[in-house]
Amino acid sequence: DVKVTQSSRYLVKRTGEKVFLECVQDMDHENMFWYRQDPGLGLRLIYFSYDVKMKEKGDIPEGYSVSREKKERFSLILESASTNQTSMYLCASSFGAATVYNSPLHFGNGTRLTVT
Amino acid sequence: AQKVTQAQTEISVVEKEDVTLDCVYETRDTTYYLFWYKQPPSGELVFLIRRNSFDEQNEISGRYSWNFQKSTSSFNFTITASQVVDSAVYFCALSEAGDSWGKLQFGAGTQVVVTP
User: Fold this and answer.
1) I want to staple B36 with a disulfide (CB 3.0 to 4.6 A). Which of A97, B48, B68, B95 is the partner?
2) How far is A82 from chain B (nearest CA, A)?
3) Which residues in chain A belong to E strands, given as ranges?
4) Cα of A59 to nearest chain B Cα, Å
5) Are A86 and A113 in contact (CB under 8 A)?
6) What secondary structure letter does DSSP report for A53?
7) How far is A74 from A90, CA to CA, in rounded Å?
8) Residue A23 — left, alpha, or beta (φ > 0 → left; ψ -120 to 50 → alpha)?
9) How would you class B92 by CB atoms within 10 Å of its CB: exposed for 0-12, middle for 13-18, buried for 19 or more?
10) Which distant-in-sequence residues (6+ apart) come within 8 Å of A99 by Cβ?
């Protein structure tokens, strides 16, 4: 069965800390995504990657960076966490770089990050 | 600008009632895809359906049905004879072929609460 695993379900960090959110997929998918979910705003795309070592900015990349050293792993990095980054973070993957716009996404369970 | 509008923030129904979730989208592309995802309390978004812009045929899957109308730019979702397990947040999403990567754009979501 398709599986996207996020390393933490809940995370509490202090302002200014460097935060790593990890995501692993076991489906050999080319594309991986990081979204944040906030009430009333739906899901907003932070970054995505269509291949190893490749990355593209989404709609709200400020304050974030990503790393994809291996096909199955996509990391989201908050260089200096701030309270406005308190949110639910969702990782997703999909098949086929050439068909990214019509491939269904497979999501992880999410990481609820609180920055105090 | 929001490209996908889900005007209903929350809908509460009693079990066995039908519930319709509205989704209105905005695009200038002739080729695009529309999606519905379900997010149960566990947090993991689950893909429900994908519809391309050239296929306006309505679809039924068990108690779920979808009504795609290009004339009104709507892609509405109906749950017939709702059950408690249908309680979730439902997201409508749009992917445009004209976007360089066809990134999914989500609506704000509609919370469905089904009570026994």
Assistant:
1) B48
2) 23
3) 4-6, 10-13, 19-25, 31-38, 42-49, 56-57, 64-70, 73-78, 87-94, 106-107, 111-115
4) 10
5) yes
6) T
7) 12
8) beta
9) buried
10) none
Nearby residues of B100 by Cβ (< 8 Å), 6 or more positions away: none
- Per residue in B74-93, pLDDT (tens digit) is 999 999 999 999 999 999 99
Contact A40 B108 (CB under 8 A): yes
Angle at A64 between CA A58 and CA A69, to 5 degrees: 85
Reported as a single tens digit per residue, the pLDDT across A46-102 is: 999 988 989 999 999 999 999 999 999 999 999 999 999 999 999 999 887 655 667
Distance CA A30, CA A93 (A): 8
Please state, in angstroms and rounded to a whole number, the distance separating the CA atoms of residues B35 and A101.
11
